[in-house]
Amino acid sequence: MARLVMKFGGTSVGTIERIKNVARKVKREVEAGNEVAVVVSAMSGETNKLVDFCNQISPLHDQREYDAVVATGEQVTTGLLAMALHAEGVKARSWQGWQVPINTDGAHGKARIMSIDTTAMAADMAAGTVAVVAGFQGVGPNRRLSTLGRGGSDTSAVALAAALGARQCDIYTDVDGVYTADPRIVTAARKLDKITYEEMLELASLGAKVLQTRSVEMAMNHRVRVQVLSSLVDKPGTMVVDEEEIVEKQIVSGVTYSSDEAKITLLRVADRPGVAAAIFGPLAEAGVNVDMIIQNIAEDGRHTDLTFTIGRADYERALDVLTREKASIGFEKMLHDKNVVKVSVVGVGMRSHTGVARRMFQTLAEKNINIQAITTSEIKVSVLIGADYTELAVRSLHSAFDLDAA
Ligand code: ADP
Ligand code: ASP
Ligand code: MG
Predict the structure, then answer these.
(1) Domain around 53
(2) CA of 179, nearest ligand number
């Protein structure tokens, strides 16, 4: 029998009625002859509430205890969905991350899945029981609960699909597929029937939270067939596929933005070998990922100003580390700004077409939007701008690259 992984996000399990709706969808797949593993998120709003509790205790809380708190949201949904399946006459049981087990590394709050032992679960599924698995969580090296970072249930689902050798991983959500831009911001956005793994990877990592970045990485590495579709309407969604499967290639396939950015500038840092290591070493040790980096040499030739961006969740931690390391790094002043956003255009067509960056900068200039930092890769161009211009920038770029629906 074919194995199928179905994942339902927060909105899709946001009320008891919706959970019952999910149970009916799962039942249909079981009756169609599939061995089903369902991965669920916490009911919508629950994880935010739990994260907020942690921050109210202290923004610099112990990440291991954060995981103990935020992993609970998914536990509730597994039990409720298992009960809803029972009510539909379907055999089902709940599995928490540690029960499977889904083994992760010890990077609490953003752990990576290292291995999944599906022996017990697969045997249970083969005996006709639906596995209802808690997304977002696993168990770390010291047998402590771990979580996979916000949006991590997508990664749980794809990892499970890979481990089970499932024929497909269906990600059910509150939109009916992947669009050329966030349909909540750009009403003219178009649904894509297919998107390449690489483009989806860039879109996700640049802010399109419809799939968590690591889930796409994992799907690409293990060649898992992933479909993004709606849990509320019955129609095909978007398939994430290999580049060869796409006949008509756009230069730009999507525009995306990330508000999860913060900018830090260190003024008058001594311009000598080792200084970048002195700054980014302690940040890395504190688990802070640095993204864009800009360095300017001051007029005296002995000092440099250094600007970089980090995830907003790491903001307090980064400021704390840099303040403590001020003497050993040797900078004069630190400026910081959370009111920034990163806007990106993505497309595999950029490999063979020039002029994308120019068109992007020109479009933003016409709207009087100032660019604070730029990064590029083979298939994307990203700019950092003031957060107030987010919607204007995304919409203008969407039209400028001919993505608007007719
Ligand atoms: P879930 O709770 O099901 O995991 P998410 O909120 O994490 O759902 O992801 C779905 C949301 O992603 C949509 O509601 C949509 O606003 C947003 N989104 C951002 N960019 C895109 C895009 N390019 N295509 C589709 N949805 C997008
Ligand atoms: N509940 C978690 C979150 O809100 C994981 C997920 O929904 O994918 O981030
Ligand atoms: Mg999500």
Answers:
(1) 3-174
(2) 1
Q: Determine the distance separating the centroid of ligand 1 and the alpha carbon of 373, expressed in angstroms.
A: 26
Ligand 2 neighbour 213 (Cβ under 6 A): no
Residue 141 lies in a domain: yes
Torsions phi, psi of 223, nearest 5?
50, 50
Tens place of pLDDT for every residue, the chain, 406 residues? 799 999 999 999 999 999 999 999 999 999 999 999 999 999 999 999 999 999 999 988 999 999 999 999 999 999 999 999 999 999 999 999 999 999 999 999 999 999 999 999 999 999 999 999 999 999 999 999 999 999 999 999 999 999 999 999 999 999 999 999 999 999 999 999 999 999 999 999 999 999 999 999 999 999 999 999 999 999 999 999 998 887 777 889 999 999 999 999 999 998 888 888 999 999 999 989 999 999 887 777 788 999 999 999 899 999 999 999 999 999 999 999 999 999 999 999 898 888 999 999 999 999 999 999 999 999 999 999 999 999 999 999 999 999 999 8
- Assigned domain for 53 exists: yes
Give the residue, by CA position, lying nearest to ligand 1 atom 9: 210
Ligand 2 in contact with 304 (CB < 6 A)? no
Total number of domains constituting the chain: 1
CA distance 201 to 213: 6
Q: Which residues surround ligand 3, an ion (CB under 5 A)?
A: 9, 151
Domain membership of residue 133 (yes or no) is yes
**Which atom in ligand 2 lies closest to the alpha carbon of residue 74?**
1
- Residue 211 is assigned to a structural domain of this protein: no
Distance 380 CA to ligand 2 centre (A): 26
Torsion of CA 44, 48, 51, 52, to 10 degrees: -140
Largest CA distance in the chain: 77
Mutate to test the pocket of ligand 1, among 155, 182, 211 (most ligand atoms within 8 A of CB): 182
Q: How far apart are CA 176 and CA 195, in angstroms?
A: 14
Question: Residue 151 is part of a domain; what is its CATH number?
Answer: 3.40.1160.10
CB 152 within 8 A of CB 135: yes
